[in-house]
Amino acid sequence: MVDRIILRVTRYRPESDTEPMTQEHEIPLRKDWSVLDGLNHIKDHLDGTLSYRWSCRMGVCGSCGMTVNGEPKLTCATFLGDYAPGPVRVEPLSNFPVVRDLVVDIGDFMRKLPRVKPWLIRSEQEPPAVGEYPQLPAEREEYEQFSMCINCMLCYAACPVYALDQEFLGPAAIALAQRYNLDSRDQGASERMDVLSEADGIWACTFVGECSAVCPKDVDPAGAIQRYKFTAAMDSLKALLLPRGAR
Amino acid sequence: MTLSHDVLIVGGGGAGLRAAIAVVEDDPRLTVAIVSKVYPMRSHTVSAEGGAAAVIRPDDSLDEHAYDTISGGDWLCAQDAVEVFVKEAPEELLRLEHWGCPWSREPDGRVAVRPFGGMKRMRTWFAADKTGFHLLHTLFQTSLRYERIARYDEWYVTKLLVDDGRVAGVVAVELMSGRIEAITAKAVILCTGGCGQIYPFTTNAAIKTGDGMGLAYRAGAPLKDMEFVQYHPTGLPFTGILITEAARAEGGWLINKDGYRYLQDYDLGTPSPTPVLRSMELGPRDRLSQAFVKEVEKGRTVDTPYGPIVHLDLRHLRETVIDARLPFVRELCRSYENIDPVRELIPVRPVVHYMMGGVHTDIYGATPLEGLFAAGEVACVSINGANRLGSNSLPELLVFGARAGVAAASFASGAQDLAIRPAVRAQVEDERRRLERDLLQRDGGKEPISAIREEMRATMEEGAGIYRSGSSLAKAADRLRVLQERFRSVRLEDRSRTFNTELLAALELSFMLDVAETIVHCALLREESRGAHQRVDFPARDDHRFLANSLVYRDADGSRRVEYPPVTITRWPPGERVYGR
Question: Where do the annotations place FAD binding (chain B) (predicted)?
């Protein structure tokens, strides 16, 4: 006798549905199964028309973010057993337009990402032949945490500011800007300042901290934003108080 | 038909992104685009863990890296390609460093290196144990600075267009809208990765379905050395999640049910408390996976609901070492096995990991089909021969991604504008009809996609696994023929144009079946044992007959033809593979 659990999955087909509906499936509850394994069971054996994204099933590609029982989660790293006896509600991520079923449109993030210049900026680009730019382990540690972002969008789904104001750059994009700002090899912090200091940049954040709470990779976007606010405030203060040459 | 670029890259992983950057840097006049079935940062490069090999230390040499690679590949590598590869790998890894890749560091700030399987020197650069993740995100984020790199994210290429023996572009479906378009190009670079999903138990992501191999093969380009499938010795049971070779490089031991370091029984050296290069746990992957099968046969493995396993023991490494050098291993073990490797043994078994074979290319990434290039796992240059060494695949996709980018740019800038001739227009219309009428509006199909897929996977594991035989392969070939037939009446229920992942799954399955047939066919014809291809009925390497690459062609009538050009040998004549002595 196999244990079973009920999955309540949001369905939405834009060609035929005016609004989302919920579909219920009873599936086997296996000890090792993630929520994603449950969805795959539905797709392979019960209803081939269910659409959702997934790929690596090891928590690193960032494809399979969904809302599980009200919380944004990577479904490949969230286990059915933790929700027993169920039922488990699986919905698309909040704060994004729904394309279909559990698939959301993350185009907004993809357009914002280049605006924060998430690449290493040097005043001069040396050829590889000059060798590596030295970096002490402690210097690497300064930005390491912020380099762990997998762009899974859970932080945008959790962010109350983004929910109200879609112009807000958002947690992951700001954390990635900080990832380069804090990299000892980077010389581009001033180029990133304009976009980060805009009204829809860091100052829009009200420091609710939901982004850091839901991050599956322990990136602390809220911390990145707070830290950058301090930097930006100091910079504007310096600009006010000090003569140009001393800044 | 309005979508058109000089160079079109299929696949947005490490090789594709590197190729795109090479094109824009090489020729500012060219237009370039990446079309990928997932957003680039979702590509499977993201899952690579252990590291990237390139000579950087004064005690190392290019010749030693070349020799390790060639002996590791059981002398099936193209030695001219290996020489190019080892020479250009350091420059490519340094370039990644200059682009911001967070390589792990020595206390003095230099890039750190670690040992790796089959390598006689420490030359594997790493970013903790998330090297592929960091490499991919560094490449993706760097690519964003080039506005000239256009992207078709979440578009799926279903066909290569060929005009009079020359590639003219692709047909692709935009997943979001379902629209089907031709995208024309003077040169196309395939960077779609491997096909681990053909097997039931694999480290490969769900997207690794051999699309690029299938596209090239159907367009008439030959696939090379398809019979060589790498089993990585340490995957987690059930999920197949990879536990990186770096775990052994940092000092992990493989032990059987008696706690015995069994590799000592398989001509891989004698146990020592600390890792010894090219010995025991740092032997090559093919030999370690084969040793596991022998342990099963001797009854010395542990039985679990997911089959026999052995254990990887990291307990004697300190928690500080595990957290600093193998944090992802600890995270994965906790999430997916509910164990902590600091205190507990990790259950592992061999798992399909990498295709040595792929689309045949020269050292510039060019295939024999004019205008078609390939790089990364989808391609076979070949630097990997009959068995790839761990940490050679990441530098490979950089070196040959860049080379293919430059070669495609040069080809495209010299090529005349392609007028879209009626023959190509007809191909586009045929393909549109196939997708729209034969698949999307199909009625009365009865074969579930998942049933055919599961049977294909079981067939491959049983017939073309770590050990094969003439009879197991012949049986697999028969079963695949039946599955191809059943696929003709595959059942599709989803009529929607919007993000139709059922249509995608059917198209992927069709590519996988074609690729699976080439693997089985080439394995049946290669009557010898070499590297990852072990025939129980032909247990020895046969340089007299098979010091040759296999090139499998699909002829116009759908039949297969295999040719055996000799392996390119430059400076390292075939010899014995020696490990641990």
Answer: 11-16, 36-51, 211, 377, 388, 393-394
**B153 — contact with chain A (CB < 8 Å)?**
yes
Cross-chain residue pair B494–A137, CB shorter than 8 Å: no
**Structure ipTM:** 0.96
Domain that includes residue A164, residue range? 107-246
Residue A108 pLDDT level (bands cut at 50, 70, 90): very high
User: Are B134 and A63 an interchain contact pair (Cβ–Cβ within 8 Å)?
Assistant: no
Q: Which domain holds residue B264?
A: 232-351
**What CATH number did the domain enclosing A118 receive?**
1.10.1060.10
Task: Tell whether residue B393 is among the known ligand binding residues.
Answer: yes
| B199 interfaces chain A, CB cutoff of 8 Å | no
Q: Is B30 annotated in some ligand binding site?
A: no
**Number of domains, chain A:** 2
- With a CB cutoff of 8 Å and minimum separation 6, the contacts of A84 are A3, A5, A29
Mutate to test the interface with A, among B38, B47, B98, B449 (most CBs of A within 10 A): B98
8 A C-beta contact, residue B14 and residue B45? yes
Please indicate whether, in this complex, the C-beta atoms of A57 and B205 are within 8 angstroms of each other: yes
Residues A200 and A167 sit within 8 Å (Cβ to Cβ) = yes
B102: Cβ contacts below 8 Å, ≥ 6 apart: A140, A143, A144, A147, A183, B127, B134, B138
Cα(B404)–Cα(B20) distance, rounded to whole angstroms? 9
B118 assigned to a ligand binding site: no
CA B15/CA B402 separation, integer angstroms? 8
Give average pLDDT by consecutive 10-residue segment, chain B, 581 residues.
90 98 96 98 97 97 98 98 98 98 97 97 96 98 97 98 94 97 97 98 98 98 98 96 96 98 98 95 98 98 96 97 95 96 98 98 98 98 97 98 98 83 92 91 91 98 98 98 96 95 98 98 98 98 98 91 98 97 91
Residue B486 carries which side chain, given as an amino acid letter?
R
Answer with the one of A70, A104, A138 that is the final residue of a domain.
Answer: A104
pLDDT tens-digit readout, A76-102: 999 999 999 999 999 999 999 999 999
Cβ-Cβ contacts under 8 Å, A217 against chain B: none
* Catalytic position from the list B18, B121, B123, B285: B285
Please tell me the distance from the alpha carbon of residue B581 to that of residue B570, in angstroms, as a whole number: 26
Of the residues B49, B57, B110, B144, the best mutation for testing chain A's interface (the one with the most A CB atoms within 10 Å of its CB) is B144
In the structure encoding, which two tokens stand for residue B468, read together? 């094969």
Active-site annotation holds for B285: yes
Per DSSP, what are the bridge partners of residue B66? none
* Cβ contacts of A183 on chain B, cutoff 8 Å: 100, 102
Residue B536: which CATH number? 1.20.58.100
* Statement to judge: residues A120 and A100 lie in one domain: no
